[in-house]
């Protein structure tokens, strides 16, 4: 199954830059059809990118998530 990683997009450019942290991961089973991941939210704006990697280590292009605001 795929390894899902959620990255904090610190500068909001939609690219995984050096120093941007992985804030959550989940290893999916080969039969997984849906999943969820919890991430820590800072007060203010939160921007994240999500990638999936196969068992060979090939990583997908990052998917940009909508802005999440925490008060």
What does this 3D model show about the protein?
The chain is an all-beta fold. 0% of the residues lie in helices and 37% in strands. It contains no helices and six strands. The protein has strands spanning 3-8, 22-27, 44-46, 48-53, 63-64, 68-70. It has a four-stranded antiparallel sheet with strand order 2-1-4-5, with no helix packed on it. The protein is globular. The termini are far apart. The model has no long low-confidence stretch (mean pLDDT 95).
How would you describe the shape?
Answer: globular
Low-confidence stretches: none
- How many strands? 6
Instruction: Please work out how many helical segments DSSP would assign.
Output: 0
Fraction of residues in helix: under 10%
**Structural class by secondary-structure content:** mainly beta
Give the strand line-up of the largest sheet. 2-1-4-5
Measured between the Cα atoms of the first and last residue, the distance is 36 Å
Task: State which percent range the strand residues make up.
Answer: 35-45%
* C-alpha Rg (nearest Å): 13 Å
The biggest beta sheet, please?
Answer: 4 strands, antiparallel
Q: Element order, helices and strands?
A: EEEEEE
Mean pLDDT: 95
């Amino acid at each position: 199954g795929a390894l899902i990683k959620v990255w904090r997009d610190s500068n909001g450019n939609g690219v995984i830059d050096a120093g941007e942290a992985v804030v959550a991961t989940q290893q999916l089973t080969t039969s997984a059809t849906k999943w969820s991941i919890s991430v820590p939210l800072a007060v203010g704006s939160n921007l994240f990118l999500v990638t999936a990697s196969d068992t060979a280590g090939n990583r997908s292009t990052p998917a940009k998530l909508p802005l999440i605001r925490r008060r």
